[in-house]
Structures are given as structure tokens and as C-alpha cells.
Amino acid sequence: MPARLKLFLPLILFGVLALFLMRGLSLDPKELPSALIDKPFPAFTLPALGSDETLDRQAVTGEVALFNVWATWCVSCRVEHPYLTELAQQGVAIYGINYKDEDAAALRWLQQLGDPYIANIADREGTLGLDLGVYGAPETYLVDAEGVVRYRHVGVVDERVWTTVLQPIYVQLQGGERG
């Protein structure tokens, strides 16, 4: 190797490494891939929050719905909660997955802030979250009437996310019924 090239080798390696790192940093963390897209919502049998009822996949599928992963320890969940309540009041079907939380704290939260959920799955150990590939809370999955996961959103669902991303898919899955 010529002596001059040896002088520039560290600079070339640094440039290649910098390009690689910049490419990695430009990825949007809210667009994390999900292996479940276009696959059935995972099978599970877990308790309903605050009840003796047991929920399973069949109990929470059958209509187009959002599945919102939330917890009382999640600051962002508190931010998105009022908007989820608005959506529920507009008729959007939302199921909660209370993730790695304490039942008493979760029930207090819902009593104080309102309960937008049709039902809440108490995922105390995070087993359903693990099957879903949850990175943390909040995460929201859009599931069609056949129980197939069609979209995953990582982060807060707010008006912008609803109107530009989730609502168009929700309406399409419902056959254009809702606006």
C-alpha cells in the first residue's frame, strides 16, 4: 500500500463510519418495524383490569379497533389519554392493554382521568406485550374486524397522528363508514 494512501486510510474509515452512523440516526423511532403487521393479533388469556373476567383474543376482536398499550408510570400515556377519551366519545373502539402496572394504580388513573376503553387487558407480567413486540408505552395497534394487526404506532396518539395516519386506515378497514 503506498505511503500516501496509508495517511488517508483513517480519514476514509472515519468518513465511512460517519455515513453509517448518520444513516442510523436519521431513522424515525416511531416507524419501528413490527413482525405482526398483516398477522393475527397474538393469542392470550389474561384478566380484565379490575374484574374477575378473563379476556382472550376472541373476546376483543370482531370489530375494527385500536389496542392501546398504556401504564400509570408512563408520562406520555397521560399526555395522550384525553385524546383517546375524545376518540372513544366519537365512537372509535379502543381496548386498553395495561402494561406491567399495578391494578390499583391503573384503576385510580381511570377513575380520575376517565376510561376510554371498551375493556382493559391486565398485562401485569408483560407477556402480551412481549408477543406484540412492545418496546414501551404508549404504543397503539390498529386491528381489523378479523383480528389481524394492520398498523402499529409507537408514541403518543394525538389529533395529528389520528387524522393523518390512523383515521384513514381505520375508515378504510371499516369500509369507509366513518369520517
Automatic annotation (TrEMBL):
Keywords: Cytochrome c-type biogenesis, Disulfide bond, Redox-active center. GO terms for cellular component: outer membrane-bounded periplasmic space; plasma membrane. GO terms for biological process: cytochrome complex assembly. Its main location: membrane. Transmembrane segments: none annotated. It is a single-pass membrane protein. GO terms for molecular function: disulfide oxidoreductase activity. Residues 35-171 form the Thioredoxin domain. InterPro entries: Periplasmic_diS_OxRdtase_DsbE, Redoxin, Thioredoxin-like_sf, Thioredoxin_domain, Thioredoxin_ResA/DsbE_sf. It is found in: Cell inner membrane. It holds the Pfam family Redoxin. It comes from the Bacteria. PANTHER family: THIOL:DISULFIDE INTERCHANGE PROTEIN DSBE. Belongs to the thioredoxin family. DsbE subfamily. This is DsbE family thiol:disulfide interchange protein. It comes from Pseudohalioglobus sediminis.
